[in-house]
Amino acid sequence: MYYTSGFWKRRARAALQNHWLTALLIALIVSLPSLLVQTAAAVTENDLLGRLQELMLSSVSVGGNAVDLNRFQTGLEAIRGSTGIWVMQGLYLAAWLLTPCLTLGQVAWLLGRLRGQEDPGFTGVFSRMKLFFRGILLRLYVALRMLLLMLPGIVLAAAAMLPLWLNDGSSRISLLSAANTAIGLEYAAMIATAVLGVVAALRYALSDMCLADHPDWGAVQAAKESRRLTQGKKGQLFGLYASFILWYLLGTMAASVCHDMFGPVPSLMVQMLASLALSVYLTASVCAFYQGQTEPENAGAEEETEELNG
């Protein structure tokens, strides 16, 4: 049976009613490791990407026509020898390793709200800490499977350069024709890779829900169950994700207006609060979708209730 995205979002809102503060606190705990590392990197000026961007900009001449290779090389050596930058990369890795089990705890808490179970409070985010290694393995396995599914697009992107490599350069016309062909193939490869990536992401979108709901399962089993549950349902799931795009745009606009009216600090607070709220809302909606696939009788009963009340 087909259910619109609004159906799953209504179930999410009903489950979160009177629990929003706890949900936001749990979402903050899940994102806290990454936020702390990002803040520390910004304060200490040990952000690797930021340093590389500054180096590239400072190495370009005033007219933008040339790059000072000596200055660029010296800057790279300084970054390579900076202990703080590599310590920060280690902290980023630690935050990445800690996040999966916290996310599984958040998902387990949301599933409990959808099923009307007793609320353990914000400590529910730590309920899946024993899945620390399986959570990491699940992320790695899903990333590998997604890469394999996107491989045809990646191969096509590499093959797009063949017309240029095989061109003998005998004339400017043939070279221009080969370049146009390569550009066309490159665009096609980018589109194909993006489509395959979206399909792969949807296929394994319920992996966290499967593992959090069945803590005795292995990572591969949870990923395979997600693939089974989403078979023939990817369109519904894609529609659910797409329905949040407008909300994210509105959140960005609200932060921009707040920046113009009150300054950067209130704007950052609004942006962070909106991001946390939308993250909770989206995750709860996907959890509702997962519950609908594993407990279809509940979804059917709720639909009948809504029709009677409507």
Walk me through the topology.
Elements: H1 5-16, H2 20-44, H3 48-59, H4 69-80, H5 83-114, H6 132-149, H7 151-159, H8 162-166, H9 172-203, H10 207-213, H11 219-229, H12 234-242, H13 245-262, H14 264-294, H15 296-309
Helix pairs in contact: 1-12, 1-14, 2-5, 2-14, 3-4, 5-6, 5-10, 5-14, 6-9, 6-11, 7-9, 10-11, 13-14, 14-15
Walk me through this protein's architecture.
Helices cover 80% and strands 0% of the residues. By secondary structure, it is mostly helical. Helix 5 (83-114) packs across helix 6, helix 6 (132-149) packs antiparallel against helix 9 and helix 7 packs antiparallel against helix 9 (172-203).
Keywords:
mainly alpha; 310 residues
What's the average pLDDT? 86
Radius of gyration: 24 Å
Number of helices in the DSSP assignment? 15
Relative strand content: under 5%
Structural class: mainly alpha
What is the number of beta strands? 0
- The ordered H/E elements are HHHHHHHHHHHHHHH
Helix content: over 70%
Shape: globular
User: Biggest sheet, open or closed, and with what strands and sense?
Assistant: none
Summarize the model shown.
This protein is an all-alpha fold and 310 residues long.
